Predict the structure.
Amino acid sequence: MNAPGRHDVPSSPVSPVSSLRPTVRPSGAGGFVWLQKSLGAVAATAGCGLMVFGLLGLGVSVPEVVSPSPGSKYSTWVFGLVSSLVFVGLGRFLWKKGLSPFRLARQREQLLGFVRAQLRLRVTDAAAHLQVSEAEAEAQLSLLLARHEVDLVFLPETREYVHREVHERGRTVAWTCPSCDAPVSAERALPGEKVVCSYCQSPFLVA
């Protein structure tokens, strides 16, 4: 049986498989990340100390405000109570800020692993993987691109990111089915993806 012409074959569906693992470049900002973590550890330690000091102050001030001792000045204990609350609030703020570099570094490693495992990448998928908002995921992805830790190409028609080396190899996709030699519409197929021939229904990998 003769193979049909290109105009007789409808577009074939494409289903991604993860047979290709593009290279992710190592980070070149290790010293800056180390500095951020060091400052964060100092801030978290200071915040922990302030919270402990404030909680101790609350433990002393609250009973005196509720039931003042004979001869004690009520205004003094109120001031102590307010000061303790300020210490607790400031300590909590420093604690959260100090842990932020560690949280961002962990999310960065998770995002790098996710990028490494994908042929196609959407910001929504990255946000779902990291369990953060799309704006945060896009900001972290943009930071990786700015630091040249990943080399991605944005496809505006599908709003997807693909690895540049995969995108370059995509120009050499197979245009005919290896089983029946029928023309296959695989303009959006990338290397490592599986294409199903619309004529003989035989699946084959784009090389």
